Amino acid sequence: xxxxxxxxxKPYEQKDWIRENINYYKDEGSYAWIFxxxxxxxxxxxxxxxxxxxxxxxxxxxxxxxxxxMYSGTLFTFIEWFLFAFVLFHALNGxxxxxxxxxxxxxxxxxxxxxxxxxxxxxxxxxxxxxxxxVI
Length: 136
Known about the structure:
With 136 residues, the protein is mostly helical. The chain has helices at 17-23, 28-54, 61-70, 74-102, 109-135. α2 (28-54) crosses α4 and α4 runs antiparallel to α5 (109-135). The model has no long low-confidence stretch (mean pLDDT 85).
């Protein structure tokens, strides 16, 4: 039985996990994974904000309309536009993941990532034009 040479095995230090992960080489799949997690967290935070925003419904119509008036400005239109970017990326990347898992897309995962980005940017710009035209 061979003995394992402990000098060849690099010990993993828990305290250095952030530096190890930041310095790790990343490709399209890594960035898609990172952005998917970030967009998921943003959407969960939005869910809590949404629940908080509609909570005045229990206090009556006047209280609800007062809360909604706070969100009717141009600033919130742009914030909603960027919220759409998170929803869009999360949805398109989810479709990309399904294609990778079910349709032998692992061979084409880089191309699928670029298609996701291109389609997402086009849809983001179109939605922005629609939203801004509504404000104007």
